[in-house]
Amino acid sequence: MNFAGRFTLILPPIGYFLGYFGAIHPFFDSISVFAVPLFWVSIACIILLILMRSKWVFAVCAMLALSLLRMASEPAEASSKHAFGLYQKNLLFSLADPKPMIKDIKASSTDFVTLQEVTQRQQIVVSALKADYPSQQLCRFATVGGVAVMSKFPMVAGSGGCIGDIGAAYIQVETDNGPVWVISVHHLWPWPHNQARQAKRILAKLETLKGPKIVAGDFNIVPWSHQMRTYEKRLGLDLAPHQNTFHLNHMLWIPIDHILTPPSGNKAVVTTRPFLGSDHLGLLARFDLN
């Protein structure tokens, strides 16, 4: 194979490697969304390079070795000892029948609920859950629908709020372990959309909220991205084990819905809930608040 052919074989590994550099430019975070298919294509390229006895195979292997650092997820075992639960769901702005969704959320008996794409049509979900989750905050999102956060615990007076109309709602509630902020987030897609600018504004506000925080939502970015690492670092939270919640054209499954909780010695456990008319699977997290 000529030089051009061999160079083509190292392009997927290069693309995979560039996904590490979201701190330099959000374009690279966009690449990280496709890390899984790029990884497997890169493995195929390595095999071809080995068969051709190309020296480039060593550089390609070095790039892929970093996958052990980036995409590893700590194993979590199911436990009945977790004290709190949260139900996370992007409803889908065009949800035809909200009844199955309402029933599933009620049946989960969680302490907190975070919702996205709550259009005027979907506000029936929030209203129907008022008796079970009396502490509620619904905020407009200029792009699509709104974001909502709810809890069965009493809200701290005057604590509910919105971060403009850019996709974030928050409340502070009094739990059995003391007050905690609960935040629902809906990110734009990464570059070329303005996710980085949006996240910067959201994080700046969340850093002013004093006390423990739980952040959940449709982040539209994968857990190994620079963006999610930034949420963990700046808010001092742990990203719960990720689950694939969304697919592109029924081909590529990606984990873009996430839950972040305060650090705890008892690792959070996250399971998925059915689509129930949405294009996102729901997330059901069990965790502790120390």
Description:
It is a single chain. The chain has 290 residues and is α+β, with helices and mostly antiparallel strands. The chain folds into two domains: 3-70, no CATH class; 84-287, Deoxyribonuclease I, Chain A. Helices cover 32% and strands 25% of the residues. The protein has nine helices and 14 strands. It has helices at 3-18, 26-32, 35-51, 56-65, 67-70, 99-108, 123-128, 195-206, 226-235, and strands at residues 84-90, 112-116, 135-140, 146-151, 161-162, 168-175, 178-186, 213-218, 238-239, 246-248, 252-254, 257-261, 269-273, 282-287. The strands form three sheets. It has a six-stranded mixed sheet, with helices on one face. A six-stranded mixed sheet has the order 5-6-7-8-12-9, covered by helices on one side. Helix 1 (3-18) packs parallel to helix 4 and helix 3 (35-51) runs antiparallel to helix 4. The N and C termini lie far apart (60 Å). The relative contact order is 0.15.
Short description:
This protein has 290 residues and is an alpha+beta fold. 32% of the residues lie in helices and 25% in strands. The chain has helices at 3-18, 26-32, 35-51, 56-65, 67-70, 99-108, 123-128, 195-206, 226-235; strands at 84-90, 112-116, 135-140, 146-151, 161-162, 168-175, 178-186, 213-218, 238-239, 246-248, 252-254, 257-261, 269-273, 282-287.
- How many structurally independent domains? 2
Strand order of the largest sheet: 3-4-2-1-14-13
Question: Mind telling me which CATH architecture of the largest domain this is?
Answer: 4-Layer Sandwich
Largest sheet: 6 strands, mixed
- Overall pLDDT level: 87
CATH class of the largest domain: Alpha Beta
Spatial shape: elongated
